[in-house]
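Example for tutorial group B:
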């Protein structure tokens, strides 16, 4: 039996071959595999302003244009008109009816067909196929999760066991924390960088000043990675309850990554959601959403200046993209102490791609 591309023993393993970051066919194959994955859609606090939220960020990964609607309950619906395929909702809105602006077909907020101009003589119309298709949506503490179910149960179990004590439901959407960046690098390089604290002392001086590098640790679970940042003395931190595995520790941040490219970063002020969206083999969009639980903690500690940390990461990742294009580079080795998260990601990637 041939040895797997990424050896399960990190001390013997080599990193991803450079083609995973540079080859168009490899990129397209990996992208097609993402349609079975689940993704972040919205937080329930967003429905205070809008009851229709198109999920434009994740269309390419899902292979579907979807939207969330909220009436008697939250639904995930196809965002494609059943007449000619036009997008039904192009912006978040508040409405009692969904109307396609191409030819005027209307639907209820539940996705059921309501009306269509100039269709009086069409036989066997309307039929169930004229309704908008429904897709699964899962709620965890106000987070609306959509798409496939690959590793979804494992993710919910991990979040509940670790952060079930955190009142995520009460967090409030803060539109001012929205960011969208386009970087000249492969999406997997961005994930690689996120999954290790190895680079923090070298790249993030301010972040390094508030985190205890010796206590930084990484934990693996099926379909994801958790990195726990411990605060230095006097820096802001959580106070986990007695039923938490981190009780008594000064946790500055819980950094969660879920395959393929979702980051849920929990800070004492709240939650920063990062979506890594592949655009092409060498171009990626990074989207930030912010949900605030404790406004008094904004701007402090590990989650204090996320814009600065992001720009520092982007500079490193874009330079690495240029490096992996070099003919002299093929693949490297892992640090067994510092790069277990990267190794775990590479194993998942090569098994699901």
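The residue assignment follows.
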């Amino acid at each position: 039996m041939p040895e797997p591309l990424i050896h399960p023993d990190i001390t013997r393993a080599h990193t991803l071959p450079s083609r995973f970051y540079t080859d168009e066919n490899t990129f397209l194959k990996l992208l097609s595999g993402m349609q079975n994955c689940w993704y972040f859609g919205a937080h329930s606090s967003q429905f205070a302003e809008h009851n229709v939220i198109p999920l434009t960020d994740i269309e390419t990964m899902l292979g579907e244009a979807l939207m969330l609607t909220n009436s008697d309950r939250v639904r995930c619906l196809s965002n494609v008109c059943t007449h000619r395929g036009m997008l039904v909702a192009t912006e978040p809105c508040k409405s009692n009816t969904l109307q396609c602006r191409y030819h005027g077909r209307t639907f209820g907020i539940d996705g059921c067909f309501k009306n269509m101009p100039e269709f009086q003589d069409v036989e066997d119309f309307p039929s169930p196929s004229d309704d908008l298709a429904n897709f699964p949506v899962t709620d965890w503490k106000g987070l609306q999760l959509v798409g496939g179910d690959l590793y979804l149960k494992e993710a919910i179990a991990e979040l509940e066991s670790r952060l079930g004590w955190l009142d995520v439901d009460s967090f409030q959407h803060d539109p001012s924390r929205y960011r969208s960046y386009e970087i000249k690098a492969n999406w997997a390089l961005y994930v690689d960088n996120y999954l290790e604290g190895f680079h923090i002392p070298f790249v993030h001086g301010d972040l390094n000043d508030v985190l205890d590098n010796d206590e930084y640790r990484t934990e693996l679970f099926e379909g994801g990675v958790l990195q726990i940042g411990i605060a230095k003395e006097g820096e802001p931190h959580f106070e986990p309850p007695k039923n938490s595995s981190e009780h008594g520790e000064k946790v500055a941040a819980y950094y969660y990554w879920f395959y393929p490219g979702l980051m849920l970063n929990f800070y004492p002020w709240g939650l920063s959601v990062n979506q890594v969206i592949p655009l092409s083999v060498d171009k990626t969009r990074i989207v930030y959403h912010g949900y605030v639980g404790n406004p008094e903690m904004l701007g402090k500690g590990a989650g204090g200046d996320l814009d600065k940390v992001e720009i520092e990461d982007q500079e490193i990742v874009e330079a690495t993209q240029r490096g992996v294009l070099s003919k002299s580079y093929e693949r490297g080795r892992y640090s067994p102490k510092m790069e277990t998260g990267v190794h775990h990601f590479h194993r998942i990637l090569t098994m699901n791609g």
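Residues 306-324 form the longest helix (19 residues). Compare this with the pattern of hydrophobic and polar residues in the output above.
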